[in-house]
Amino acid sequence: MKQWLLWNEPNQARWLRPTTPSTYVRRILNPGYAAIHAVIPRARVAGGVTAPRGSTGGVSPVSWIRGMRAAGARLDAYAHHPYPSTSRETPFTGGCSHCQTITMATLEKLLAEAGRAFGPKRIWLTEYGYQTGPYGVTQQRQAELLGQSGLRAHKAPRVDMLIHYLVKDEPQASRFQSGLFNTAGRPKLAALAFPLPLAQAGRSGGKLVLWGQVRPRSGVQVYRVQVRVGGTWAFSGGNRRTSGRGFFSTAVAAPKGASVRIYSPRDDAYSATIRAR
């Protein structure tokens, strides 16, 4: 094991008391960093692992990062959980730019604060997701936002990692309902979106620009694009190929309102559908 996280959301009082950056750095982070590197010299140890907000009795992630610097934090990467503040927030819009919270919509704030505190350390986004149900979004919206979050992380400098939380909804409705599968184990639409994330990256020359990734396996992957205008799906062109890491950016003819998805021949699987804007 070469990648490590030290603690979970220590900026919230339910996870660490006293809830102070100095306590975290001096009693958990720095001793853990030294112990791990003594045994695994090439390990990568992430600190912070902050929640997007301090909540009652806690500390905001902005103040936490600054406090960690003042306490002499040692780390190889900074980890954060950029959960949205509301179900209306997207990975790109709706965040509070003047607040000390840090969500995916205000990812630049995390990059700036971590950069000032620790230099050009890598950023790990180690929990993220949207809940479905009465207090969340629809399954279709969850699938769309999953693709958008992948695009957001991909475009951000220094971000190495984005982990979806969680695989299966928790049994209690008051707990996390952000799973790819419901409590009975049945797949949500997000279960299609996770292995084949897809998002609209813009328009160019009247065409729809798509970003996405074919995640199963590694290396260059083959995929195809399907567009539906009205009631019939039709392939747009022939086989296309991803980068060596499975990413792609491609332009297709798709009017506003058209449905779009990708197909992975090797997996014989389709992504979730997005609506062209």
Shape: globular
The CATH superfamily title of the largest domain: Glycosidases
- pLDDT under 50 segments (min length 5)? none
CA radius of gyration is: 20 Å
CATH level 3 topology of the largest domain: TIM Barrel
Distance between the termini: 43 Å
CATH architecture of the largest domain: Alpha-Beta Barrel
CATH first level of the largest domain: which class?
A: Alpha Beta
**Beta-strand level of the residues, as a percent range?**
15-25%
Write down the overall mean pLDDT. Answer: 97
Please give the domain count. 2
Measured as a percent range, the helix fraction is: 10-25%
Largest sheet composition: 6 strands, antiparallel
What is the number of strand segments? Answer: 14
Number of helices: 5
Please provide the ordered H/E string of secondary-structure elements.
EHEHEHEHEHEEEEEEEEE
Helix/sheet category: alpha/beta
